[in-house]
Design brief:
The complex is a heterodimer of chains A (about 190) and B (about 25). Chain A is mainly alpha-helical and about 190 residues long. Helices cover about 80% and strands about 0% of the residues of chain A. The chains are: A mainly alpha (about 190), B mainly alpha (about 25).
């Protein structure tokens, strides 16, 4: 439990460090601002509100997509998100680490790369909607399939729309974190 | 920022994540 989560956290942080150093060195040597991926957090209060609004807006859509997906894939087994059984084991250290991984590290790192670098790369080549759909499909595809595809794709579309609408990654980080936190709390109960 | 730089940054993150997940 604890050891698995420490490894998972180390992998996330290390790969993020490699990606960010690539971004900073390449952008820097081309005279471009790496923070333009959406590292613009002010006005913080407004951005946090956008994130909370996005979370509330996502709830009925993600719930509807979960129901549809459960029905569509009722005959096909979808593996469980590996962090869920760890959390239900109840060990305090495991629960604390799981919250750090799912509610702090994952939102910051995944928003940076999926809605920051990847979304903006597509956005520079195609229009808004192809970028929203393509990056959300990839984001959903890296989660346990097939049952989670539709709900996570829907959440990712909302995260990408928040990035597009506000120009900041903070609303997506807040929405992503609140979503993961509520999922973990439900798993704990 | 140019799409090429952004895509390379994403790929270096994504590929490292996959390699590290498999190796560690």
């Amino acid at each position: 439990g604890v050891q698995d989560l420490i490894i998972e956290l180390a992998v996330m942080v290390l790969s993020a460090a490699i990606g960010l150093s690539t971004l900073w060195s390449m952008a820097g040597s081309n005279g471009q601002d790496p923070k333009a991926i959406g590292y613009k957090f002010k006005p913080a209060g407004e951005n946090v509100l956008w994130g909370l609004g996005g979370f509330i807006a996502s709830l009925p859509l993600v719930a509807a997509m979960s129901l549809l997906s459960n029905w569509a894939f009722r005959r096909i087994h979808t593996p469980e998100q590996p962090i869920i059984p760890m959390v239900s084991s109840g060990n305090a250290a495991v629960v604390a680490l799981a919250f750090i991984v799912a509610c702090v590290a994952a939102p910051i790192i995944e928003e940076t790369f999926f809605r920051g670098t990847l979304y903006n790369a597509f956005r520079g080549k195609t229009g808004t909607w192809p970028s929203v759909l393509a990056t959300s499909a990839l984001f959903a595809a890296v989660h346990p399939l097939p049952g989670n595809f539709l709900p996570i794709f829907t959440l990712a579309c909302i995260l990408a729309i928040l990035r597009e609408r506000t120009g900041s990654l903070l609303p997506g980080m807040v929405c992503h974190s609140v979503f993961n936190t509520s999922s973990l709390i439900i798993a704990l109960l | 920022i140019s799409p090429t730089i952004l895509l390379r940054a994403f790929l270096s993150y994504f590929v490292s994540f996959i390699i590290l997940s498999v190796v560690i």
